[in-house]
Amino acid sequence: MIREEFDRFCGSLPGTSNVIQWGNASVWKVGGKIFAICSHWGPGEDQKISFKCSDMSYQVLIEQPDIIPAPYLARAKWVQLAEMDAMTEEEIRAYVTQAHKIIAGKLTRAKRRELGLEELVAG
């Protein structure tokens, strides 16, 4: 998944916003809180995708080849794809969607209502 596809997909999720920061990283937020990043962090110059995970997914994913604890964010249960073929595009979309839901669930009820996310978090 190239950055343009990543950005297009993240932008299709409800209530999202995008900022470019930290050395040209594409940072995706819901309600002002980050759920996914496409950057050049970590070893090498290749594009990297990072996202928030559930505790269980984090433990499973970091045991997989080419998926590492995300630099600067691992303590918050984020992973980084060290190689873009570590997951299929379908898997990336599924995990990014779950990251969006996890972060949306941490927003206040008022913020979720403002962004139209009540059903997403309840479902």
Q: What's the short story on this structure?
A:
The protein has about 120 residues and is of the alpha+beta class. It has one domain (about 5-120): Aspartate Aminotransferase, domain 1 (Alpha-Beta Complex), CATH 3.90.1150.30.
Summarize the SSE layout with pairings.
Layout: H1 3-12, E1 16-21, E2 25-30, E3 33-39, E4 48-52, H2 55-61, E5 67-69, E6 78-81, H3 89-105, H4 109-115, H5 118-122
Antiparallel strand pairs: 1-2, 2-3, 3-4, 4-6, 5-6
GO molecular function, one term: DNA binding
Protein name: Putative DNA-binding protein (MmcQ/YjbR family)
InterPro entries: YjbR, YjbR-like_sf, YjbR/MT2646/Rv2570-like
Task: Outline the structure in words.
With 123 residues, the chain is of the alpha+beta class. The chain has helices spanning 3-12, 55-61, 89-105, 109-115, 118-122; strands at 16-21, 25-30, 33-39, 48-52, 67-69, 78-81. It has one domain: Alpha-Beta Complex (Aspartate Aminotransferase, domain 1), CATH 3.90.1150. The chain is globular and about 40 Å long. The two termini are 27 Å apart. The mean pLDDT is 91.
| Portion in helices | 25-40%
**Count of helices?**
5
Low-confidence stretches: none
* CATH fold-level topology: Aspartate Aminotransferase, domain 1
Number of domains: 1
Average pLDDT metric: 91
Biggest sheet layout: 6 strands, antiparallel
Organism: Aestuariispira insulae
GO molecular function, one term: DNA binding
Protein name: Putative DNA-binding protein (MmcQ/YjbR family)
Keywords: DNA-binding
